[in-house]
Amino acid sequence: MSRILAVDDSKPMLAMLSSCLKKGGHEVIQAVDGVQALAQLKEHQPDMVITDLNMPNMDGLEFIEAARKDPAGNAVPILLLTTETAQALKDRAREVRATGWLTKPFDPDQILGLVDQLS
Questions:
Q1: For residue 22, what is the domain's CATH number?
Q2: So what's the pLDDT on residue 96?
């Protein structure tokens, strides 16, 4: 069982993602934006993070960039889960050391497979 930090400002999406991960036998910690996610990262030290890209206060890329500068998030796998497909955003995600990029709507089996692979 892995401890996974799920980050999304959409309550329905956060609930769906959390439900999927819990059904896969994982413990889920939730955050609604990058600011809250950074605090949760430090407090709970998850095995993996799955974050939305477009969020208020601090978006997914800003969160990953900040997390990578912190010992708590330097080596944690971080997946972006987003509706965005622009190459420039994917390039930026690589620059900030995102582990992977998934598009919404997500496939529960794909998410659980990746979690098992990376954690």
A1: 3.40.50.2300
A2: 97
